[in-house]
Amino acid sequence: MSQATCPQCHAPYTPGQRFCPNCGKQISSTGEGVIPTVAASNSSLPPTMAANSNEGLPPTMAAGSNPNLPPVGNSNPNLPPTMAAEDPANHQQPYSQYASGAYTPPPPPSYNGYPGGTPTPNDPYAPPPPPGPGMYSMPPIPPKKKNSLPWIIGAVVVVLVLAVCGGSLYGITQLFPKKSTDNKTQTTTDNNNNGDNSNDTATKSVTLTNLAISYATDQITFTSIEQADQFPDDTYTKTYSYEKKSNFVRIHMKEKQEGGRSAYFSYSSAFSLILPDKTTIKALNASEFSGPKEGEQRENWVDFETKKPVDLNSLVLRLGTAEEAQMEFPLKSNADLSEYLPKQADLNKAFNYGPMKWTLNTAIQRYDAPGSQAKKGKVFVIVSLTASNPSSSDFWGYDYIRLKSGDTTAAPEYTSDDDDLNDLSAGASNVKGTLIFQVPPSDTYTLVFASGKNLSGTNVTFSIK
After folding, report:
1. pTM of model > 0.85
2. CATH fold for domain 186-339
3. Which region, left, alpha or beta, applies to residue 161 given φ > 0 means left and ψ of -120 to 50 means alpha?
4. pLDDT at position 54, please?
């Protein structure tokens, strides 16, 4: 005899049951054979643990044999046993119909609607199941048609940008024209180029010969002049504007410090260039920072900014600051610099100073002394003396000689070499010394020897022509 099963979940049930013990589906409308769940005959056990008098029913549907206990199940016979309410008095939950192990739940139904059979649960690429009865499936969405209009607009924008950039690049190349490599340096002399080069942008140079002068005992020999819109070894001459607005003149020279002392002058302060229109400009830069050291020989250049090309044969150089004795001369070969050259007088003039015999050997007038330039309105006068002391007494003197020029009387400069002349011991002979004075220039000068104890003063007048 086959066992009856639920038409919905196929779970077995006992004939006469009204509801399926597994899914709760109503099986019979009469409810025959349904035995109410009652408490177990053992009153000491809770109602939910009462023994089941019907072996075929789950524990939750067992009828209670103890009449003193209320039924555990729902008193409403129309509800399935699995929906029995909790006993409010004992707060006990009914046992599940699976707790008794009366039957084994059937396996889940097979979904034969999948193409090719039941898919593997772990297969991520399995197609979705087809819709079941009463279910609605969305129709497939057709692919969206691509719009080519944005691509056309983008292409037009790219073409316009390229056109604008191309025009800009052309404009920039016109603003910064490439320099021609055909502009070669033009070398001339001061005898064959007397024209105005103000409209000529080509680099030009002028060679100088026999042009030398001494500034702060720095013997300077000028060798050439050149001009250009910039010089690669001088960053001060580089321009960064759209149009060329500057021109620079460079003076090349050789230097030798002959004064026995270092010169610490600044080229930007001591060098000035006078242009043909009488404009005066200071030096912009120099290859060397300051004047040469004692005994140093070197080559050097000094740059000036002239704004526009100038006639290199019409330039005048001024040496010296505003506080110094300045020297101006044309930058030309064989220029007349006699006004600024040292003047020397060989005197060999003998005289007595007390018991001592002296000789004024030479006197030199010049604009500079060792390492320095004379102050404005003055010159250096350098005298060479020889002294002998034939007496039996030692002579000791200090700061006892002066030089008078007009109304000015000056003491020797600290650079004088007169230590031996300050201490003439008895019997000393041919003691030499050099005194340096800074005074206004004059036709005649007077050496003044001061008087002292048992010593009469004396004056020696001389001229330097």
Report:
1. no
2. Immunoglobulin-like (2.60.40)
3. alpha
4. 43
